[in-house]
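Now read these lines:
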Amino acid sequence: MLEPIEVGPCSSKCAATGRPFRQGERVISTLVRNGAELRRLDFSEEAWQGPTSNVVAWWRTTVPVKPGGQGARPKPTTLLEVFEGLISTDAQQDLAYILGLLLLRRRVLKFEGERTGPGGSRRLVLSHPKSGKIFEIPVVSPAADRQQTVEDAVRSLLRLRVEPPEQAEDTGAADCQGKSAP
């Protein structure tokens, strides 16, 4: 069995405004390149103004509601959860397609077939056997000007390391777990 690739928990507050996140709040999580380092930054939906040139990936997620305000920290986001977040946006279909192929190759997802989408576009139908979820993703190869960005994003996701909780900058007051946007 393959080990999940961990992205790590989000901070307890918005990177742009400093406002603390509320349980159940929808937020935008990003992976930002700063030189050779990759860092996760989280934004409230109100403060999100779109990706900057150093953002290699972004996805929508929800701050979980902890039963009774207490409870164990949720597991860090896995590559599958990043994929689910990406397929909910039209902006990064090329990255979602490449991650879908990677998850298919690693046997995390299963190929169910192919169908023709709107306008005659090709779409892959993939399933996640453990959860029973079905994903339909457009076949979108990265354009020449996006190939390096997509390649860097995938490399970064594959080698990302999580800091131990006591060394992380985040206070742990709120953790985010990647969820597929409706």
Notes: Helices lie at 79-87, 93-105, 147-159. The beta strands are 26-34, 37-44, 55-62, 110-116, 122-128, 133-138, 177-178. The first strand starts at residue 26 and ends at 34.
